[in-house]
Write a structure and sequence with these properties.
By secondary structure, the protein is of the alpha+beta class. It is built from six helices and 15 strands. It folds into two domains: 52 residues, Roll (Structural Genomics Hypothetical 15.5 Kd Protein In mrcA-pckA Intergenic Region, Chain A); 167 residues, Pseudouridine synthase (2-Layer Sandwich), CATH 3.30.2350.
């Protein structure tokens, strides 16, 4: 296994992040400083970052149906329930990619794969996230254009990619951003209160029929789809000379 992949699989960060660690001279294999990213790590090798002995961990790629009332945090000083209470205790350390606030529910991806985390969070990959949104009063269709054009909220410029109406007080909203509490703040700007928020999909992975509080491992094909680079935009047509 290549050194950068080995360190990423041990939970030291994305493959790009661990490359900086390697090139800075912090990594030793069998006592020798190694800065070559293509160095192969054999099973019997002793790999250290500083004084820490590194062991490769089993990669975990899973989805979880987060119920309402659970926090997206590894530890809570008030001892409230967290999503990690729902995951197997014998897993290596994993982290959630993105978050849902305490009162929201739906699809979360949990992993210790830094490469996957990068693909899901880096703006250049423009990963879609689809939500079911319930409101406190009937939605006025005139506000759809405002959601699609965008608005300033706490955290920056926010816009929706798609908005479709499911009922008088229910919508389906697709985002490509990850601003904290984005949907709740966008609708608050339009004088609505979000009463129900459930994430249905991240990129090609849908929540489906997975019950609240349950998890499942992703298949190799699903992981490959999540890591697939987005298709480049079509070239702009040049206007004919006048």
């Amino acid at each position: 296994m290549r050194l950068n992949r080995f360190l990423a699989s041990a939970g030291l960060g994305s493959r790009r992040g661990v490359e900086e660690i390697i090139q800075s001279g912090q990594v030793r294999i069998n006592g020798r400083v190694v800065t070559d990213l293509a160095t192969q790590v054999e099973p019997a090798d002793a790999v250290k970052v500083g004084s820490r002995l590194i062991r490769s961990e089993r990669l975990i790629h899973a989805i979880l149906h987060k119920p309402k009332g659970f926090l997206c945090t590894a530890d809570d000083e008030r001892k409230r329930r967290t999503i990690f209470d729902l995951l197997p205790s014998n897993w290596p350390r994993v982290f959630h990619v993105g978050r849902l606030d305490k009162e929201s529910e739906g699809l979360l991806i949990v992993t210790n794969d830094g490469d996957l985390s990068l693909h899901l969070t880096h703006p250049r990959f423009k990963m879609e996230k689809e939500y079911e949104v319930g409101l406190d009063r009937p939605f006025d269709p005139i506000h759809r254009d405002k959601l699609l054009r965008g608005m300033h909220i706490q955290g920056g410029w926010a816009k929706a990619e798609h908005v479709s109406q499911l009922g008088s007080k229910a919508l389906r909203v697709v985002l490509r951003q990850g601003i904290k509490r984005q949907i709740r703040l966008m609708f608050k700007d339009l004088d609505y209160e979000v009463t129900h928020l459930r994430r249905l999909r991240i990129g090609p992975i849908a929540l489906g029929t997975l019950p609240p509080g349950e998890w499942r491992l992703l298949s190799a094909r699903e992981v490959a789809l999540l890591k697939k680079d987005p298709a480049p935009p079509p070239p702009k047509k040049e206007s004919a000379p006048k």
